[in-house]
């Protein structure tokens, strides 16, 4: 009987402790709530700040992004006489068309595409946007066709290579 009473007392104490713990879990202290709210506020503020910074950056990129135009230029190139484009000659002049945002981008793109053909640029006779070129001069029909290809494929196109026989 003594053991039974002792056991029931311990059981009651345990039940009371469990009830107290459950009550504490259901109603956290005000101090803990403040900390949680402050943390949530800080996270929310940080998230808003990050979003705002990202939006500002994206707006800046959108407003400063340059649009590509078709550029055209006449280049003096040279390379090995065995190069298929030079047909046994030491060099040639060629009209090149490509998409670019500005003159520097155009020259850079032509330089890399010319290297891929195994040629070197010796001189740049002229270069400008196709739009400006057409305002001043007429261009041959085949160059207009190449311009359409550039617009559709975004690839550099080379016109006819006008080679010279020997260096002077």
Could you please describe the fold and organization of this structure?
- Helices cover 56% and strands 22% of the residues.
- Strands 1, 2, 3, 4 and 5 form a five-stranded antiparallel sheet that branches.
- It is elongated and about 115 Å long.
- The protein has two domains: 2-63, no CATH class; 69-164, no CATH class.
- It has 168 residues and is an alpha+beta fold.
- The protein has five helices and five strands; from the N terminus they run ααββαβααββ.
- It has helices at residues 2-26, 30-64, 103-116, 130-136, 141-153, and strands at 69-79, 91-100, 119-129, 157-158, 162-164.
Could you give a short description of this structure?
Helix content is 56%, strand content 22%. With 168 residues, the protein is an alpha+beta fold.
